[in-house]
Design brief:
116 residues
Length: 116
């Protein structure tokens, strides 16, 4: 009887671990969303600042050099956020939900062992 109680306890622990897994994934996804918002905000500020510098220097036309500078600035600003997002996605992929224990099969196998 003690072994059956242990098996039931394992099932309950698996359910708790499943909830914890879901909570951890949600937390990481929320962090990714917050990082994405911060990235967008930072990129907008950096590009606006650079455009203001170009405007102050009298570069009002969109030339190739200006576009290249803005593109490089955008990529450099986004790079740390993209690296963090990749790391978070890797963390999510490593979170594993525990295997479900089927109580009916478990009790059936225990019963058959007792009978046989």
């Amino acid at each position: 009887m003690g072994q059956i109680a242990n098996e039931i306890e394992n099932v309950l622990d698996n359910k708790k671990a499943g909830r914890e897994t879901k909570k951890e994934r949600r937390k990481i996804l929320d962090q990714i969303a917050a990082d994405e918002a911060a990235k967008t905000n930072l990129v907008k500020k950096a590009l606006a600042r650079q455009r203001a510098v170009f405007g102050a220097a009298g570069m009002t036309g969109k030339g190739m050099t200006e576009e290249a500078v803005l593109k490089r600035l955008r990529e450099e600003t986004e790079q740390p956020f993209d690296a963090k997002k990749a790391a978070n996605m890797n963390r999510i992929s490593k979170i594993r939900k525990p295997k479900k224990t089927n109580l009916v099969r478990l009790f059936n196998s225990k019963f058959l062992k007792l009978m046989g």
